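Retro notes (design track)

What went well: tokenization of the new backbones is finally stable.
What didn't: we kept losing track of which sequence belonged to which structure.
Fix going forward: every design gets posted as structure first, then sequence, in one message. First example under the new rule, 221 residues:
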């Protein structure tokens, strides 16, 4: 819940201000601050969604071992590693983007400071920054998605082996909302970030950004 409130609070105010008053001036420091918190929170979201998938895997496939496998120390460790990992990735990516030169006109074609719109404004060579962004996206997005998929494959097999329809329905209902969040979030973020070069079509980028910054938190349990 804390993550979702922070996650929405980073992007929604600038979206609402833009819708209400039109384009406005954003200082460079404020833009980099927003980018830092956004990257940190989106990386944390990825790893926490994976942790939630593992939690559901243990609950459905190993219910008798759940108190041991998901004891408080394990939950705290998963949560802390998610937040610290997000902060570390954000420091590296934000430092790379902040070190670039921006010659103007510095008109950001987006409703918040994101990676691709900022790279499109840079007048220096951005190949290294793009490579760092691409590798981190592959490791974080695809890595966490594969773990979530493996968890749900095991959950699906366990549900199909359950003898009664009531048990299958109950087990499936515990995973539905999280499965919807995973599907929406990863499909949008992988299309935007897990690609070797920055996006030129900012219209599509903005639509997809609304999906994973506004729609996804609404479905998150």
């Amino acid at each position: 819940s804390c993550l979702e409130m922070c996650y929405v609070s980073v992007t929604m105010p600038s979206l609402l201000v833009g819708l209400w008053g039109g384009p406005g001036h954003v200082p460079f420091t404020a833009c980099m601050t927003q980018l830092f918190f956004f990257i940190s929170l989106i990386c944390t979201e990825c790893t926490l969604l994976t942790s939630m998938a593992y939690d559901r895997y243990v609950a459905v496939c190993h219910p008798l071992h759940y108190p041991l496998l998901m004891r408080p120390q394990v939950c705290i460790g998963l949560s802390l590693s998610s937040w610290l990992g997000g902060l570390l990735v954000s420091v590296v990516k934000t430092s790379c983007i902040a070190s670039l030169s921006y010659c103007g006109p510095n008109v950001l074609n987006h409703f918040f400071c994101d990676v691709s719109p900022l790279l499109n404004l840079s007048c220096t060579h951005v190949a290294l920054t793009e490579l760092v962004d691409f590798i981190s996206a592959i490791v974080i997005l695809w890595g966490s998605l594969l773990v979530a998929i493996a968890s749900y494959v095991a959950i699906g097999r366990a549900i199909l082996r359950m003898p009664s329809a009531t048990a299958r329905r109950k087990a499936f209902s515990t995973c539905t909302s999280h499965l919807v969040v995973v599907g929406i979030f990863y499909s949008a973020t992988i299309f935007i970030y897990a690609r070797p070069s920055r996006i030129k079509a900012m219209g599509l980028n903005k639509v997809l950004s609304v999906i994973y910054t506004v729609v996804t938190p609404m479905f998150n349990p």
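Added context from the reviewer: The chain has one domain: 2-219.
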